[in-house]
């Protein structure tokens, strides 16, 4: 009796094992098939194959030899690089860690002068070389000498002449009130600047506009040194919200890019760029002040692929896409949270918006900014923590803030 029962139980167990084995096997097969089909759905493009080295119509001139060169949008490391020769006014750079760059027309001479005076004062402990890109209207020797004097003879200064092409792309009707120069400026800062040979001499570049004034009472700690010591790739000071009118189609275009390279929106991207129901937050880094590793926008293959895709699309000219949203989308997607920071240990003013260093408020802030309120017709807006809007801008306090 006992034995028979035993046998029955054994047979039962055996059936069970076979049953579970079959279930397990079929589950495994389905899963690996699913994986295969998912994989076959997403084969990432090789970014290096997507970058077209256009021999652009844009040109730049060497300030010593006078020779003009076609401006390539791709920087190719040469085996035997001929170093770019620079005509430095005042003094030659002592260090090539960083360069401060402007793109300036003569029409903005006065604000450029103010911007340089602020730099000269705040960086007096450690003057950094400054390069002013222009279209020939700052070639005059008297103009150059007067700006060199504004800086004082410890700050190296150079002028780099460039030539924009006549873009064949017509801006959309909504954007025709902008001068053609404005669109060129956007393209210049989006992808052209890092491939200019002057930049190859330096590790970091610091972009400022003619209406960008850094401010504070005392000389500040050198931001390039901080970037290098803390392994920071990109730094900014203010965040803003872009106008919907200036980002037409950019959101879906970026998602197209993500799909092409089988990328999922990163956490940083989702937290700062995505709003309700996967819509665009329009939050932008205020890129009129930006310090970046030169190599970032020049050698990073995915960033290059994105910038070339944007350039090829023509949206900079057609829709007035700015370098701010173009850079913000890709930086939030690819750069890790501790390598992208907001510098808050000095104040900054751009046109009519300003912020003082972290902790400088009220009377003290007013004393620092008042001399810069030079236009009686302008209403100046104080942004207490450097963000517009002050609350509800997802970029505002997301990245580490350096307050020293
Ligand atoms: C700049 O970026 C490149 C990679 O693109 C990296 O190799 C280099 O270490 C970075 N430089 C600094 C100073 O962080």
Automatic annotation (TrEMBL):
Domain of life: Eukaryota
Membrane-crossing residue ranges in chain numbering: 12-30
Keywords annotated in UniProt: Membrane, Transferase, Transmembrane, Transmembrane helix
GO BP annotations listed: cell wall mannoprotein biosynthetic process; protein N-linked glycosylation
Gene Ontology cellular component terms for the protein in this record: Golgi apparatus; membrane
Coiled coil: none
SUPFAM superfamilies linked: Nucleotide-diphospho-sugar transferases
GO molecular function, one term: alpha-1,2-mannosyltransferase activity
Pfam families in UniProt: Glyco_transf_15
Family, similarity comment: Belongs to the glycosyltransferase 15 family.
Name of the molecule in the record: Uncharacterized protein
Originating species: Rotaria sordida
Lineage, uppermost ranks: Eukaryota, Metazoa, Spiralia, Gnathifera, Rotifera
């Amino acid at each position: 009796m006992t034995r028979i029962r035993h046998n029955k139980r054994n047979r039962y167990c055996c059936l069970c094992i076979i049953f579970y084995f079959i279930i397990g096997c079929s589950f495994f097969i389905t899963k690996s098939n699913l994986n295969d089909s998912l994989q076959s759905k997403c084969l990432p493009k090789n970014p290096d194959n997507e970058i077209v080295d256009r021999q652009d119509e844009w040109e730049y001139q060497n300030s010593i030899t006078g020779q003009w060169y076609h401006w390539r949008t791709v920087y190719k490391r040469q085996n035997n690089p001929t170093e770019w020769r620079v005509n430095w006014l005042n003094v030659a750079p002592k260090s090539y860690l960083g360069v401060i760059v402007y793109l300036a027309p003569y029409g903005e001479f006065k604000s450029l002068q103010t911007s340089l005076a602020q730099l000269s004062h705040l960086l007096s402990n450690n003057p950094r070389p400054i390069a002013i890109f222009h279209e020939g209207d700052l070639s005059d020797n008297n103009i150059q000498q007067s700006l060199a004097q504004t800086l004082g003879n410890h700050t190296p200064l150079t002028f780099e002449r460039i030539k924009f092409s006549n873009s064949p792309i017509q801006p959309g009707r909504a954007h025709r009130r902008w001068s053609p120069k404005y669109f060129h400026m956007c393209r210049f800062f989006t992808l052209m600047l890092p491939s200019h040979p002057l930049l190859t001499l330096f590790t970091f570049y610091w972009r400022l506009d003619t209406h960008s004034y850094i401010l504070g009472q005392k000389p500040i700690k050198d931001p390039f040194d901080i970037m290098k010591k803390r392994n920071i790739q990109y730094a900014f000071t203010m965040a803003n919200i872009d106008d919907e009118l200036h980002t037409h189609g950019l959101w879906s275009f970026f998602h197209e890019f993500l799909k092409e390279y089988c990328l999922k929106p990163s956490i940083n991207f989702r937290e700062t760029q995505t709003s309700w129901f996967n819509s665009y937050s329009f939050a932008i880094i205020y890129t009129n002040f930006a310090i970046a590793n030169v190599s970032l926008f020049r050698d990073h293959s995915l960033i290059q692929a994105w910038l070339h895709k944007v350039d090829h699309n023509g949206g900079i000219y057609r829709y007035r896409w700015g370098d701010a949203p173009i850079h913000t989308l890709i930086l939030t997607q690819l750069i890790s949270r501790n390598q992208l920071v907001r510098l808050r240990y000095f104040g900054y003013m751009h046109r009519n918006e300003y912020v003082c260093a972290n902790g400088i408020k009220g009377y003290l802030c007013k004393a620092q900014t008042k001399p810069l309120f030079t236009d009686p017709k302008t209403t100046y807006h104080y942004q207490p923590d450097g963000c517009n809007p002050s609350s509800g801008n997802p970029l505002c306090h997301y990245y580490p803030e350096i307050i020293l």
